[in-house]
Amino acid sequence: MPASPVELVEVGPRDGLQNEARTLPVGTRVELITRLLALGVRRLEAVSFVRPDRVPQMAGAEEVMAQVPRRDDVTYIGLVLNRRGAERAALTACTEVNVVVPVTDAFAERNQGASTAALVEQAAGAVGVAREAGMSVTVTLAVAFGCPFTGAVPLERVREVTDRVLDLGLDELAFADTVGVGTPDQVAALAGLVRGDARVPALRWHFHNTRNTGYANAWAAATQRRDAGQRLALDASLGGFGGCPFAPAATGNIATEDLAYLLRHGGVAASGPERLDLAAADASARWLAEQVGTPVTAQLGRAGDAPDPVERAVRA
Question: Which of 75, 99, 174, 285 is the most exposed place for a label (fewest CB within 10 A)?
Fold first, then answer.
């Protein structure tokens, strides 16, 4: 049975904005989401239910969700850190929560004020709330590729935390290269941790391009061997905006338009959007750059698209 297409998950409205110095008003954030839907995005992280004093760029999550277009074909994800965040998300148009658990205690303490073990317990509470509300659940393991405070993360440590969170019962597990230190061999090693594990119906990856390895890592993830039935998703942000406010020097995400180009020209079937309108994407990325006051980092807006090869064997 052929593998399902790689799903592109747009994180621009959340991760794309949370590290910017300029906080956008609710109406502008809703316009960004509306523009993304017009580009063909169908699954996106729209908001983050966190403390506004810690991440002011994400304040007003409920107001944003009250104004977004309601569509049956669109999945809105709310990022949460604990039970309280999940309770807030459950009262909005979000149909999915993404619960973040850092794999190192050093990052967990700085990012969320508790140890990794404590955050796994908090994640259990968030999962319970989400299930009761009929919401899908992803758990993202932050700094799975490396920690800005402790350096390299042993694979065994990731294995240990992965096993704990999978026992919570998830719809999707995500590995995040929060600070952009990862390389393709790490992608293969992490994928190997969960290959054949029935507790992982879907595997998702979150890459930053801090050291120009983000796209190589995305390619490694997209072309890895998958078990039949295991879905695969890749996060990306329009224009390449983004970063973690609690990770020093964490620059932007891989760009949605550049990733879509890589997969299409590499013969990898992708969904959401299946074929991005480059001109429209570039226009929206430039619009967003004006709003946040920082430049677009995506390359396709500068270089332009290229003709598809005459013949291409689809990989997935």
Answer: 75
Q: Is 8 helix (H, G, I), strand (E, B) or coil?
A: strand
Q: How far apart are CA 157 and CA 180, in angstroms?
A: 19
Judge whether 147 counts as a catalytic residue: no
pLDDT digits (tens, 9 = 90+) for 282-315: 999 999 999 999 999 999 888 888 887 755 555 5
CA dist 23 and 215 (Å) reads: 28
Tokens at residue 312, please?
């291409």
Is residue 107's pLDDT more than 60?
A: yes
Tokens of 105: 């205690």
Residue 227 banded pLDDT, cuts 50, 70, 90: confident
Residue recorded with tokens 């290959």: 195
Tokens coding 123: 């994640």
Q: What domains can you pick out in the chain, each with its CATH number?
A: 6-303 (3.20.20.70)
Pick the catalytic residue from 90, 99, 244, 263: 244
100: three-class secondary structure by DSSP: strand
